[in-house]
């Protein structure tokens, strides 16, 4: 495949081509893939209607691109290297041949249990090779996968299954994370009480904890694969058929199912993988994300495999058995590219250099950062101590909705600047707008980040509710895709993402909607109302701060009540949504029309208690004093 940019001049000419003639630019790139039938129209789009189609009419299957076409040239090369949570457990290498064989075999298991093209299949699994196999097996037969991150609660799983009407769930008995063992099947069982659409549950074994297995519904992965052949021709898909749904939080209500389709997503993730990381044949790419998030979908599974790369998949956490684990993994597998989140870097920084010194990191060539803004201190620590000053850092800005990386340096080619995502990749046309939607031109300016032209990885719809897709992304500003992020463009035209401008908070690189957390808190016995905001947190980037009104203000039992509320939030959403701080209040600052003035709550949560701005429009300004005095 020839789609790599190799110099800054090359970047500039690719960029110019992509803007002056986007269709011919992407059509040329798409030629590098395997199509069963050529597409009829490169691009059709209408941002007012929130619709985009790339390569429509083109017939393909993403697994033929990720697996089959590599068999002749690199069948014996590792496709996936798996590293266990437990450093004593042997790692597993799946060559392209082996992965192909196992994907086909499991695809036949899915078919045996009635799965067919267009069905939705929920996957709730630990970071084991079977997870990647399950994802690819769905794609092989044209079933739409909906992966739910292993940290979500039964209720969250049920909501996602019901929203997409999944008929099959693929899970495991349990998962290992650090020194913890977490039940997964039992959580799925709790979820399924509310999910009449689910006919079959396929369970792989990992922890071999006792699990309930219902006759007629539940089957073991290991038994099933013995009953089928490993010959499974790929289903023919249209480029615009759905590939997957991935739920993500927004500023209102329940998480929405972001939909990506087969062709454009394949082209975009592969192109960005090859270019941003400047992947060279034989290199080992280590993305530390979980496949339950978009980063894992795009840069552990699809991007690397479609490019014929070796992708390292790690089951554990950065601090187990100690804070040197990432460095041990890099040393052991001679990792070339490390792609991780600022929150992990900040947390490891806190443990000091003793865990880094003495580890051989000389194989590293490129470092990546994703998920949240990287502060300068973390950037320098990463650069100096991990990259030893000679591995470029790519600070990659993108979103679940964008499918792949949007604004980022190209490793070794774009001059980097700490905390800047730098320049848009070819095909990406960012613009900054003010509150009214007027474009802010020139440099050394800031505004809301929008994109004015479609790229192949753009969100196609929100599952089952296209109106919501239009409302969320295409109606704030006319004819623009609105990202929800604030951004500045400096004097060199470099972009720096400053954080969300909506009610989404980014906790350890995970998106959480304040409304979602409030709904969960409000379900707790005795809670009258709550308001949730983000606040700066040294390690997590942002922490969750909740103001809670209870029927009876708890006195000596305050702490117990806090813990009870945390238990409810864990039950409703999952541990990742637990507030870091809960302040009990008797009222919330509301305007006369009943709107909560979050600006004030954010300021108090940030520790700013003097300069709260204009409070004259408040219904009862005295609540502000109480909130200020009780600040945690
Ligand atoms: C934030 C993760 C600053 C941003 C791939 C975005 C970032 C949200 C960066 C999407 C970055 C992601 N610098 N902020 N390099 N990357 N973000 O959907 O606020 O989980 O809107 O996708 O993370 O989070 P999501």
From TrEMBL:
Domain Acetyl-coenzyme A synthetase N-terminal: 11-66
Keywords from the named record: Acetylation, ATP-binding, Ligase, Nucleotide-binding
ATP-binding recorded as keyword: yes
Annotated EC: 6.2.1.1
GO MF: acetate-CoA ligase activity; AMP binding; ATP binding
Domain AMP-binding enzyme C-terminal: 516-595
Keyword Nuclease: no
PROSITE patterns, per the entry: AMP_BINDING
One Pfam family matching this protein: AMP-binding
GO biological process per UniProt: acetyl-CoA biosynthetic process from acetate
AMP-dependent synthetase/ligase domain segment(s): 68-454
InterPro entries per the UniProt record, alphabetical: Ac_CoA_lig (IPR011904), ACAS_N (IPR032387), AMP-bd_C (IPR025110), AMP-bd_C_sf (IPR045851), AMP-binding_CS (IPR020845), AMP-dep_synth/lig_dom (IPR000873), ANL_N_sf (IPR042099)
UniProt xrefs under NCBIfam families: Ac_CoA_lig_AcsA, PRK00174.1
Family under the similarity heading: Belongs to the ATP-dependent AMP-binding enzyme family.
Name used for this protein in its record: Acetate--CoA ligase
């Amino acid at each position: 495949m020839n789609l790599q940019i190799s110099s800054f001049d090359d970047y500039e000419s690719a960029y110019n081509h992509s803007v002056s003639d986007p269709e011919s630019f992407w059509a040329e790139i798409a030629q590098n893939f395997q199509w069963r039938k050529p597409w009829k129209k490169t691009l059709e789009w209408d941002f007012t209607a929130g619709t985009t189609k790339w390569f429509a009419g083109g017939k393909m299957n993403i697994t033929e691109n990720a697996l089959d076409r590599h068999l002749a040239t690199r069948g014996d090369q590792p496709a996936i290297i798996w590293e266990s949570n437990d450093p004593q457990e042997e790692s597993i290498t799946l060559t392209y041949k082996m992965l192909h064989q196992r994907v086909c075999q499991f695809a036949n298991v899915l078919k045996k249990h009635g799965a067919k093209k267009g069905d939705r299949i929920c996957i709730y699994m630990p970071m084991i090779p079977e997870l990647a196999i399950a994802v690819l097996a769905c794609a092989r037969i044209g079933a739409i996968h909906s992966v739910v991150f292993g940290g979500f609660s039964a209720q969250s799983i049920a909501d996602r299954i019901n929203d997409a009407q999944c008929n099959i769930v693929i899970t495991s008995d349990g998962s290992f994370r650090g020194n913890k063992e977490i039940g997964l099947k039992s959580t799925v069982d709790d979820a399924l009480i509310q999910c009449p659409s689910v006919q079959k549950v396929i369970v792989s074994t990992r922890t071999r904890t006792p699990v309930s297995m219902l006759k007629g519904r539940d089957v073991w992965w290991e038994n099933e694969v013995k009953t089928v052949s490993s010959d499974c021709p790929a289903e023919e898909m249209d480029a615009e058929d759905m590939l997957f749904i991935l739920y993500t939080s927004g500023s209102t209500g329940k998480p929405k199912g972001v939909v990506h389709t087969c062709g454009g997503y394949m082209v975009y993730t592969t192109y960005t993988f090859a270019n941003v990381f400047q992947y060279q044949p034989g290199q080992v790419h280590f993305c530390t994300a979980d496949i339950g998030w978009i980063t894992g979908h795009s840069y552990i599974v699809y991007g690397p495999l479609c490019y014929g790369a070796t992708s390292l998949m790690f089951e554990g956490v950065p601090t187990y058995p100690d804070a040197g684990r990432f460095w041990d993994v890099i040393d052991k597998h001679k990792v070339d590219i490390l792609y991780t989140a600022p929150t992990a870097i900040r947390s490891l920084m806190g443990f000091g250099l003793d865990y880094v010194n003495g580890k051989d990191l000389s194989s590293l060539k490129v470092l990546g950062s994703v998920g949240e803004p990287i502060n300068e201190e973390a950037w320098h620590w990463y650069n100096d101590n991990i990259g030893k000053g000679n591995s470029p850092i790519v600070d990659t800005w993108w979103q679940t909705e964008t499918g792949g990386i949007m604004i980022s340096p190209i490793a070794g080619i774009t001059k980097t600047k700490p905390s800047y995502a730098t320049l848009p990749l070819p095909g990406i046309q960012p613009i900054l707008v003010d509150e009214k939607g007027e474009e802010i031109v020139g440099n050394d300016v800031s505004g809301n980040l929008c994109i004015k032209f479609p790229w192949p990885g753009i969100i196609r719809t929100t599952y089952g509710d296209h109106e919501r897709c239009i409302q969320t992304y295409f109606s704030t500003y006319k004819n623009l895709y609105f990202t929800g992020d604030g951004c500045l463009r400096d004097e060199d035209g470099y972009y720096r993402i400053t954080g969300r401008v909506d009610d989404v908070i980014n906790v350890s690189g995970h998106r959480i909607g304040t409304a979602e957390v409030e709904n969960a808190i409000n379900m707790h016995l005795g809670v009258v109302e709550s308001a949730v905001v983000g606040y700066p947190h040294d390690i997590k980037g942002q922490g969750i701060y909740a103001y809670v009104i209870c029927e009876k203000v708890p006195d000596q039992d305050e702490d117990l009540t806090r813990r009870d509320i945390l238990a409810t939030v864990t039950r409703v959403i999952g541990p990742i949504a637990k507030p870091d701080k809960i302040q009990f209040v008797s009222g919330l600052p509301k305007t006369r029309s009943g709107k909560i003035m979050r600006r004030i709550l954010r300021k108090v949560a940030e520790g700013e208690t003097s300069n709260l701005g204009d409070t004259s429009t408040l219904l009862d300004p005295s609540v502000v004093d109480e909130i200020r005095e009780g600040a945690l």
